[in-house]
Amino acid sequence: xxxxxxxxxxxxxxxxxxxxxxxxxxxxxxxxxxxxxxxxxxxxxxxxxxxxxxxxxxxxxxxxxxxxxxxxxxxxxxxxxxxxxxxxxxxxxxxxxxxxxxxxxxxxxxxxxxxxxxxxxxxxxxxxxxxxxxxxxxxxxxxxxxxxxxxxxxxxxxxxxxxxxxxxxxxxxxxxxxxxxxxxxxxxxxxxxxxxxxxxxxxxxxxxxxxxxxxxxxxxxxxxxxxxxxxxxxxxxxxxxxxxxxxxxxxxxxxxxxxxxxxxxxxxxxxxxxxxxxxxxxxxxxxxxxxxxxxxxxxxxxxxxxxxx
Length: 309
Fold this sequence. Notes:
- By secondary structure, this protein is of the alpha/beta class.
- Helix content is about 35%, strand content about 15%.
- The protein folds into two domains: about 20-55, no CATH class; about 55-280, 2-enoyl-CoA Hydratase, Chain A, domain 1, CATH 3.90.226.
- The strands form two sheets. A seven-stranded mixed sheet has the order 3-4-5-6-7-8-9, with helices on both faces.
- It is globular and about 80 Å long.
């Protein structure tokens, strides 16, 4: 055995060869340019520690950090036709779907789960912008409708984390049809006397803003989120005027009455739990009974928006 050839040379080659470094090992803050180690960023719920900039967060990570102990039940969603219009632009629509499913490990842009926050059972739906820009297509529409139906069936509040570039053009009119469908689904939740809270994340635009994202009993926005129908660049080109500083951002919209509050991601769970306990007349300081199991002989009557507590 030639130990120099079989052992020494491979050892030297491994020491001198360039090492492959994962591309996402360090993440750059879009505002300050600060480089943050991805593990530290993940532990901080994808919020840049120094600047407080809220990075986009995946649907599964969002639910894991939102529910008590990171435990929740994923709601099975109905299957929809794949590529009903046989759409193709630069690439086939089915190929784009395959890429997004491989990248996100999701079937489509919306993930629905049920669990508890501070012992209060809820249903939550999350749009993942990483899946084709969180666009609203048939599958996403079915997910929102299923989330609403699950909330009504189990008598639980519905919390929606919206984040989307709008309707999915590859599905044409079938995508636009999801706007009235999801609007009716939200109305079902309200007619059942259940709270519906919307968290607007960066960005929330287009047909999503024009439908279920703006129908909540309470609208909460994450800091710095872009929220609107058309983007600021399109508006500037249309009216040929310079828009105000921070136009369509969370803080600007709160000042002008379009959203109710801007809440840091670290405080979202606590804030939403407090709001839901108030809206459902649950004792904030006492143990909370599951909404689907009212005490014997007692009827739970949630407070709907506009009623006095």
